[in-house]
Structures are given as structure tokens and as C-alpha cells.
Amino acid sequence: MSTDDNNVSVCANCGKKGLSENMNTCNKCKTVIYCNAACKKKHKHKHNKQCEEHQRLAAERAVKLHDEELFKQPLPQYGDCPICFLRIPSHVSGYKYMVCCGKRICSGCIHAPLYDNQGNKVDNRKCAFCRVPYGNTYAENIKRYNKRVDVDDPVAIYSLGDYHRDGSYGYPQDYTKALEMWHRAGELGYADSYNNIGYAYNNGEGVVVDKKKAKHYYEQAAMGGDVAARHNLAIDEEDAGNVDRALKHYMIAVRCGNSESLKCIQDLYSEGQASKEEYRKALQSYQEYLGEIKSRQRDEAAAAREDYRYY
């Protein structure tokens, strides 16, 4: 088969030329062209081995491209705090989603003292970004969440999915609705939603257990920057005996701030399954992450709140 600049192809059986859009392509390998179905049938016995080879090469190429995308270092999961402009910690206690304005703000900025233009300390029970007072009741906050949902805020949609899963904040427990919300949030670009969907399929929460689908959604979440999903993939690969792939996932998760993945690499090193250099790189990556999220305000917030940690 060959194709020239005028989009003319040659039949692999009889050599007849014709426009590509008018010719018949092999349904399996999609690489060999025939002028009609009859020529395709006549050439089948000659093409079989070639077709299998084309399919094998295409499958290998697809796996390679997928792995390149899967093991690419993602952007920071939550970006930078809109107030201090430092990287937002990946740990849930290191930030808070503000339903009033849809911003994610680091705990340092949330708990920092607020002063007026004369230097007097004032009440800071307001959003650190938009200065709207915090909601006083669950009902008020749920009303705000629904307003954010109406403007397609993926974090608000994801959160309501969690409430439906747990049956909390006045919502009845409804796994089907939770999955619907998470799919919607994922399609809007919120990777954490795919991790929840993966967990549901992995554990049979509201759906039939399907490990293949669980892996697919974990991968979608990990490629979008979700650290928990990356750690889950690493554990699955380690359990399957694929230590090299597990280490790749653990390394990325550590660079994104996952201390559990660092401990797993330490364990692999202790067992002789990871090299000293790999463990050293993991420690260095984790220290780099801590340096990127460190600030005086965050340290003060951590000291004031015993339950606060951002790593």
C-alpha cells in the first residue's frame, strides 16, 4: 500500500489506484487498503501474518504512549494559594475550599490574624479571599454549595457527591447520585473525583467490583494530579509484583507530598527491592516539596492547631 500527495491509494491485492475515502481498509490493523471487499478477501491469506504484526506493534505503541502520559510528573494538585501565592499542600488539613467564592486557600492564610488599615486586629470569621462571613449553619453552607454547583464548580459538585455517598448534611445516602456527581466533576477537570470513582469500583461501593475499571479511574485521577490515586496505583503494582512500576508511582507521589509513599519506598529499600540511590532521591524530593509549601504563617497555624499538618 502507498499513498501520494493527492490522497490516492493503491490496492494491496490488485494494485489499482483510487481515492482513499472510496477504498476498503483492513478492519483489524487499519493499515492496508483495498479497492473493494473482494480484493480484501482474496488477499486475506497473504495479509494475515502482516496484520498480526501490525496489530502487535500498534498495541505496543499504545501501551508506550499510555505509560509516557501516566508516568509524567503532573502539575501540583491544587496549584498556588490565591493569597500567599505559595504551593497549596496536598494534605487535606493544609487548605480549605471556600464555598462562598470557590477558592482553595491554605491553612496559613485562613488562620492568619486579620488587621484593618489602622493596624487593629479585627474579627476574621470571614473568607480570607472575598471577605464574605462564614456560614453559621449547615443549611446556609449547603445553599452556597448548590449555588456553586449551578455555575459548574467542580469542587462543589465533587463535595456534594461525597455528601450523597456518606448520607451527610441532610442528604440521603445514594451511591448512584454520588457517582453521577463525581463523573460530572471529573469531566469538568477535577481529578479527585476519578479517585473516588476508582475506589467505588475497587471496593464495590454502589457498583459491582471491577478492578479493571478501578485501575482506569485511578489512572485518570493520577494523571490529573491526584496524589491518593497515585499511591493506590503504586500499592496495586507492588502487590502484583511489579516493583519497578510501583517505584515510579511512589516517586511521583512523594514529589507531590505523599508521606505514605515515602514510607513505602523506605520499606522497599529495607527489603532490598529499592536501591540506596532511589531512597535518597525520594528523601530529596520530599524535602523539596516541604520547602515549597513552607511559610511562617503555615507554621504558626500548625502550632496553634494540634490537628493541623500539611504533609
Walk me through what this model shows.
This protein has 311 residues and is mostly helical. Among the domains are: 62 residues, no CATH class; 73 residues, Alpha Horseshoe (Serine Threonine Protein Phosphatase 5, Tetratricopeptide repeat), CATH 1.25.40. It has 12 helices and 8 strands. The strands form 4 sheets. A two-stranded antiparallel sheet has the order 1-2. A hairpin with a 4-residue loop joins strand 5 and strand 6. The longest helix has 34 residues.
Please give the structural blueprint.
Elements: E1 8-10, E2 17-19, E3 24-25, E4 33-34, H1 37-70, E5 95-98, E6 103-106, H2 107-110, E7 114-115, E8 121-122, H3 138-150, H4 154-166, H5 175-187, H6 192-203, H7 211-223, H8 227-239, H9 243-255, H10 259-270, H11 276-293, H12 296-304
Antiparallel strand pairs: 1-2, 3-4, 5-6, 7-8
Q: Please list the strands of the largest sheet in the order they lie side by side.
A: 1-2
Unreliable residue runs: none
CATH topology category name of the domain at 149-221: Serine Threonine Protein Phosphatase 5, Tetratricopeptide repeat
| Relative helix content | 40-55%
How far is the N terminus from the C terminus? Answer: 57 Å
Element-level helix/strand string: EEEEHEEHEEHHHHHHHHHH
CATH architecture type of the domain at 149-221: Alpha Horseshoe
What radius of gyration results from the CA coordinates? 26 Å
Secondary structural class: mainly alpha
Query: What would the principal axes of the Cα set say about the shape?
Result: elongated
> Largest sheet, if any?
2 strands, antiparallel
Number of helices in the DSSP assignment: 12
The percent range for strand residues is 5-15%
The top level CATH class name of the domain at 149-221:
Mainly Alpha
Q: What is the count of β-strands?
A: 8
Mean pLDDT: 89
**Name given to the CATH homologous superfamily of the domain at 149-221:** Tetratricopeptide repeat domain
